[in-house]
């Protein structure tokens, strides 16, 4: 979501005549888009902001903006900590910066050059619902991004058509909980309806969506994903824990048995579906036995991808206010590492099955001399080729596999 926000802000600034600086020392305006989901993310943003103090002293004309989830309603503390920062703007509250840029010519200090061509990207993020109503006890998102607000289907359709005209082949529909899309709109469309609408956009090749919530993913959506040819066989369904007591303390609204049933339904309706999940280790009170249940869930389901995080108390959340963060950091790290090791083995075995097979890759760009892209099941694939390939669908024969990516040759 932050990447999508950054992209939108960059596009708006380009419309105002700004250009992306190739080095941050050369910029007239520096923007740090921050994440608050864990303390480590905030620390990274704070570190970068502090490092800019000297540059600001040398270049009084430099403007610095901190945007995103680190900016809550009380910005006085941020102003005290970072007096060299000119703008503090919460997510989706970027207008003051746009107005300021519109009112001055930011590239006055450097030679004016013609604006670069619009960069077309083969895969584009499209937010469909902002905010979150779920208030999982550990999560800061509803406090920083507010309540759920769905965008009308026709507005999304218009944006997707425009993106396709600019060269997009794939759209990734975004929301903290995409399954609750539309409940706040007058005609109450749902995600299944939106996917059906977008599936008919000519020139669009693939549609993805994330993130789903296990308590809200219904049969209608599963059937729709199975039926629509452009919707990829890839579901992001965060489990967070494999233990019922911990799930209850997290306020997730499901038990492990329900989660397992949902996975079984997905697998029977969408053959070969790729599954990703998120897991938090070291939630307050999580015992070794409870953590073991998370490992068992991962062993049984065998996800394609697992995003694992150590619990980080977030100010203002129910967990931070009422639960003691009692799992020591070293133990959280150990559990995190154990999940990573287990998953490495599982992903390695899953990907090894693709050895020698032909996969269809949507090429996203070039890295270190090789083209890279993703399969419908979201596998990252690298292959060498002399011709320009970005945005093309290329058949690749897989010659090497690892837990993280596939290597092959184009056919
Ligand atoms: N909406 C999605 C869901 O229901 O899981 C995920 C959104 S959340 C911004 C992304 C991930 O960050 C979560 O799945 C969770 O694993 C992790 N996360 C959120 N709050 C956290 C916290 N306080 N400590 C550690 N990880 C956290
Ligand atoms: Fe946070 Fe996701 Fe829970 Fe919403 S559903 S509160 S974004 S973890």
Q: What's the level 1 CATH class of the largest domain?
A: Alpha Beta
Q: Assign the structural class, choosing from mainly alpha, mainly beta, alpha/beta, alpha+beta, or little secondary structure.
A: alpha/beta
Count of individual beta strands: 16
Q: State the CATH architecture of the largest domain.
A: Alpha-Beta Horseshoe
Q: Number of DSSP helices?
A: 14
Distance between the termini: 35 Å
Largest sheet: 5 strands, mixed, barrel
CATH superfamily of the largest domain: tm_1862 like domain
| Computed Rg | 22 Å
Could you give a short description of this structure?
With 411 residues, the chain is an alpha/beta fold. The protein is 36% helix and 20% strand.
Task: Sum up the structure in keywords.
411 residues, alpha/beta, Rossmann fold, pyruvate-formate lyase- activating enzyme, OB fold (Dihydrolipoamide Acetyltransferase, E2P), 3 domains, five-stranded mixed β-barrel, three-stranded parallel sheet, binds S-adenosylmethionine, binds iron/sulfur cluster
């Amino acid at each position: 979501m932050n990447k999508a926000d950054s992209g939108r802000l960059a596009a708006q600034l380009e419309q105002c005549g700004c250009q992306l600086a190739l080095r941050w020392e050369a910029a007239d305006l520096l923007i740090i888009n921050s994440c608050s989901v864990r303390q480590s993310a905030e620390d990274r943003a704070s570190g970068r902001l502090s490092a800019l103090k000297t540059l600001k002293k040398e270049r009084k004309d430099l403007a610095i903006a901190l945007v995103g989830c680190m900016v809550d309603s009380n910005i006085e503390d941020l102003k005290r900590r970072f007096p060299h920062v000119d703008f503090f703007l919460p997510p989706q509250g970027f207008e003051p910066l746009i107005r300021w840029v519109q009112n001055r010519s930011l590239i006055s200090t450097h030679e004016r050059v013609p604006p670069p061509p619009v960069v077309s990207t083969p895969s584009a993020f499209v937010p469909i619902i902002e905010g979150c109503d779920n208030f999982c006890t550990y999560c800061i998102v509803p406090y920083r991004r507010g309540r759920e607000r769905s965008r009308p289907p026709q507005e999304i359709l218009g944006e997707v058509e425009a993106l396709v005209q600019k060269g997009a082949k794939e759209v990734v529909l975004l929301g903290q909980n995409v399954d609750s899309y539309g409940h706040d709109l007058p005609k109450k469309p749902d995600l299944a309806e939106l996917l059906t609408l977008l599936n008919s956009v000519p020139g669009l090749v693939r549609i993805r969506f994330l993130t789903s919530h296990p308590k809200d993913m219904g049969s209608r959506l599963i059937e729709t994903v199975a039926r629509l040819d452009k919707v990829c066989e890839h579901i992001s369904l965060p489990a967070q824990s494999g233990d019922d007591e911990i799930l209850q303390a997290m306020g997730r609204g499901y038990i492990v048995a329900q989660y397992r049933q949902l996975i079984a339904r997905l697998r029977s309706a969408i053959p070969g579906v790729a599954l990703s999940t998120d897991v938090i280790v070291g939630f307050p009170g999580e015992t070794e036995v409870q953590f073991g249940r998370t490992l068992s869930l991962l062993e049984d389901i065998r996800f394609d991808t697992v995003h694992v995080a150590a619990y980080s108390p977030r100010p203002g959340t129910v967990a931070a206010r009422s639960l003691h963060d009692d799992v020591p950091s070293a133990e959280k790290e150990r559990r995190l590492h154990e999940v990573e090791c287990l998953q490495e083995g599982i992903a390695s075995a899953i990907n090894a099955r693709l050895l020698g097979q032909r996969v269809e890759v949507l090429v996203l760009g070039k890295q270190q001399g090789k083209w890279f892209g993703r399969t419908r099941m979201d596998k990252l694939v690298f292959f060498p080729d002399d011709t320009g390939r970005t945005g093309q669908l290329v058949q690749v024969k897989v010659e090497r596999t690892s837990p993280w990516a596939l290597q092959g040759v184009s056919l």
